[in-house]
Design goal:
Largest sheet: none
Order of helices and strands: HHHH
GO molecular function, one term: chorismate mutase activity
Enzyme class: isomerase
Organism: Bifidobacterium kimbladii
CATH class: Mainly Alpha
EC number: 5.4.99.5
Pfam families: CM_2 (PF01817)
Helix content: over 70%
Number of helices: 4
């Protein structure tokens, strides 16, 4: 059976007292760590978007374009290098940057339309 069709309910295994109970308890502990990390990532994303909104407002007021491809290319290269330093797949770091940069550009375009209505 493929992994996509299989499911293990870790909570059930942890309570079972069976041979896999210890591994299930360790998975639960590690999942708690993942939950803490995810919460920290969301907090950092919120802070990142507070800063990029300020950037977007300044760009809108100055009449700058929402995109800066030179900056984005430099950031992609820097994050790919940093990911490699940390043993993270650089493609994942680049996908993250595209996700947040695209969201920031959409926000900048919205701000520009509010500051400079046509």
């Amino acid at each position: 059976m493929s992994d996509a069709k299989m499911e293990t309910v870790i909570d059930d295994q942890a309570q079972s007292g069976g041979p896999q109970a210890q591994a299930a308890r360790q998975v639960e502990e590690l999942r708690a760590d993942v939950d803490t990390i995810d919460a920290a990532i969301v907090a950092m994303l919120a802070e990142r978007f507070r800063v990029t909104r300020r950037i977007g407002l300044l760009k809108a007021q100055a009449g700058f374009a929402s995109a800066d491809m030179h900056r984005e290319s430099a950031q992609i290269a820097a994050l790919r290098d940093k990911a490699d330093d940390y043993g993270l797949n650089p493609d994942l770091a680049e996908a993250y940057l595209h996700l947040v940069a695209d969201a920031a550009k959409r926000d900048h375009e919205r701000l520009a339309s509010q500051v400079n209505p046509r």
